[in-house]
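Hi R.,

Here's the chain you asked about this morning:
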Amino acid sequence: MALIIASVLVTSLVGSQAAQQTGQVSYIPYAEAKPILEAVNDVLPAELRSAKPESMPTIWASWVAHRDSEIRGRLAQGDEDSLINFVLFGTSFTRNPRITLNVLAQMAGKQSKEPSGSLSTAEVFFKAVDSRVDDLVRAMTGPGSNERVIFARRMIEKKGYDLRTAAGRDRIRTYLLANLSRMLNEQAGYARLLQSARLLGDPSAEFAERSKLYSGRGLSSDTSLLPNYALEKALISIKARGLLAPGTVRRVAIVGPGLDFTDKEDGYDFYPQQTIQPFAIIDTLLRTMLSRASDLKVTTLDLSPRVNDHLRGARQRAGRGEAYTIQLPRDALRPWYPDAIDYWLRFGEHIGKPVAPVALPPGIGDLKIRAVRVRPSIVSSVTPEDANIVVQRLNVAEGFDLIIATNILVYYDVFEQSLALANVERMLRPGGLLLSNNALLELPNSEMRSVGYETVVYSERPDHGDHIVWYQRRASR
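And the predicted structure, written out as tokens:
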């Protein structure tokens, strides 16, 4: 049984007006959107496809603001997905084992040996879920200082559920189980779409389908370490080809840096929430000598208040001389290839120093963990900005040399991906690169063109890897 899991770490909806108060962020103007609207007319939303040409400038101004609000509204469903991840994989509120595929197999094996007979995998799964749901509801009644349980309680209360009564707690259990069922059904649908694409026998078609797979799903801010290993491999190849020269990457943007809440089977909740990608990219750029620490600046672009607030807090603490510690768990029962393990072992060597990791909770399994304390000067080089990449861009005096967008554009359809690519184009300097694990439509009017790719496999598990494509902004024609 395939288990889902998407972690979205947001607690409130932030409107587009808040993003624009800085004066740095603006919507994509109609003049730039017009060629895209004409090129992909057959997949446009109905209100744009049916609009009269003379009305489009006015309609566009209204549509783009409304769409910004709608996209930000998808964070709410992401909250629900995050909560279900927590039910399945959290360890801080329960002594029951995490519901991973390995644990399910063990449960089924134990049940089959009982005199009363065996239970199906599905029955074992839902029995285990029921116990964990009960534990989480109990924990929410008195969350203490557990930041993830506090998040769960606030979310539940915001939806109008009452933890104080038995009837209210029963309603919460029903709500959680209903959302689990929804997520399992969604995952089954994604699997069918990918299987249909595989049957075509065309890897490019499968990659294109995978690249927009979650266009109807709640926005996820989950994060993990290994995509950054794939990005490092890509940057090494890019440097070897001369597309980026040593010491020339000074301005970097990261779209959707992510926050580690309880990400599938790779993330845990026994350490504080953390972001990984901004520091992983800095570490790689310094290791490959594409950047110098003295003049490297990283900007993160995210529409999640939870992610942005986390980064602002880290930056403020760095201003007071406080470091930022990243915990790096690795499940030894899910073996990675040696090169991926080597990346895990040397992660952080150019941005900080190894420190003692947090203590592992009992019953966590064969988990390896290391930790890195990131220097305050590195943390201070990261500046968060609220921006919705589909309809907004950051107005910068000098273009970025490099923009990273992994596991982000998969949440949008071809039209919205094309708008996002136009916004990226405006933020890149000529010759600058976008690195993404998505296949993006290259329209005739766009200056963005794919110039290479890197396929990186992390382990023997099916689909455990990333295909990083390099898109370069050509000089204006």
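The longest helix spans residues 166-199.

Let me know if you need anything else.
M.
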